[in-house]
Amino acid sequence: MSSDNYSFETKLLHNKHKVDLATGAVSVPIQHASTFHQFDIENYGKYDYARSGNPTREALEDVIAELEGGTRGFAFSSGMAAISTAFLLLSSGDHIVITEDVYGGTYRMVTQVLSRFGIEHTFVDMTDLNQVKNAIKPNTKAFYVETPSNPLLKVTDIAAITALAKEINAITYVDNTFLTPEYQRPLELGADVVLHSATKFLSGHSDVVAGLAVVKDEELGKRLYSLQNSFGAILGVQDAWLVLRGIKTLHVRLEQSQKSAIKLAEFLDAHPLIEKVYYPGLENHPQFDLQNSQAGGPGAVLSFEFANEQALQVFLSNVKIPVFAVSLGAVESILSYPAKMSHAAMPQAEREKRGIKNSLIRLSVGLENPDDLINDFSQALLQVKEKQLVLQQGE
């Protein structure tokens, strides 16, 4: 049976790097060499200098390319290194249309760096195709999609955006960090470049910082490789090995986290102290049907709002199980505060315009028992209610 016919979860474990041909080892060797001896002055070997290529990093690049259905993968020192290098496919005078509630680091890159090099941008609500069409200019060369978006979990129709892009000979980037190829494969929907913060679900243990990119077109792959080699923000071999190890358990981790996320989202959605829950796994999500049609699941990240920032602070002060930290996609549940963490680079006026309120919390659900998380949230929410009663009595 060819590996092409394997299910996704089997492919996570069984690929051309499952066994080291030289030793039979069932773990990819970590090759620390920074340079490689050449045995022939006329014919150099496959590897010469580790910035240009390393066997350990290449194994990860091969694996992510296969999982995403691409022809070539690239491993970078961080998610932002992957995104920034991919943006270098653009030139001065080009224009990019981008998801409005995009990750704060991407917002910073676009507004503070690309703009200095003459690359224009327009932020739009990509759930509205008319807004996307109206944002197109004669110099539009790319569309940047984050779906589900961070932190409002909006869902963009990838196939529709890529169709628009092809009409004007533009490329489409898709950040697939939240869903990974386990649940969503943008290249199959027409995207040109898929991007990941592999720090998150792909590695999954809060112990590595890494970024990945995958392309389907071989010529585009050559261009991106040239940029990777020129810019040099490559992933170190120890980190590449950690991501490879994390990928092996992606299916069981994400499947369990998603089951728990659905349960938590339903609990929060029904709770009187929660103003709103953003999660494409809820039937009241405006793009619930779209998410089901283009992805295999809603993922394990959700956001929810309190009535005000004070209620949020009381909740965070009393919740016990999740860590309160930057990042997501780990074995432990992580609560984040977008206003001062992931989206701190976005001015408050811009956040509020996008609906990212100071009373919003983002939750990445880990592998804890979901009932333990619900009990923990319940006691913290009870503290919020008691605080509100005290304030009311004081009035």
- The largest sheet has its strands arranged as 1-7-6-5-4-2-3
Structural class based on helices, strands and sheet pairing: alpha/beta
| Count of β-strands | 12
Largest sheet: 7 strands, mixed
Rg: 22 Å
**What distance separates the N and C termini?**
73 Å
Q: If helices are DSSP runs of H or I spanning 4 or more residues, what is the number of helices?
A: 14
What's the helical proportion of residues? 25-40%
Q: Overall 3D geometry?
A: globular
Percent in strands: 5-15%
What does this structure look like?
The protein is built from 14 helices and twelve strands. Strand 2, helix 4 and strand 3 form a beta-alpha-beta unit. Helix 2 runs parallel beside helix 9 and helix 12 packs across helix 14. The protein is an alpha/beta fold and 395 residues long. 39% of the residues lie in helices and 14% in strands. Strands 1-7-6-5-4-2-3 form a seven-stranded mixed beta sheet, with helices on both faces.
Structure at a glance:
The protein is 39% helix and 14% strand. It has 395 residues and is of the alpha/beta class.
What keyword list fits this structure?
single chain, 395 residues, alpha/beta, seven-stranded mixed beta sheet, 14 helices, 14% strand, globular
Protein topology:
Elements: H1 8-11, H2 55-68, E1 72-76, H3 79-87, E2 95-99, H4 104-113, E3 120-124, H5 129-135, E4 140-146, H6 158-167, E5 171-175, H7 180-183, E6 193-197, E7 211-215, H8 218-231, H9 237-248, H10 250-270, E8 276-278, H11 288-294, E9 301-305, H12 309-318, E10 323-324, E11 334-336, H13 348-354, E12 360-364, H14 370-394
Parallel strand pairs: 2-3, 2-4, 4-5, 5-6, 10-11
Antiparallel strand pairs: 1-7, 6-7, 8-9, 9-12, 11-12
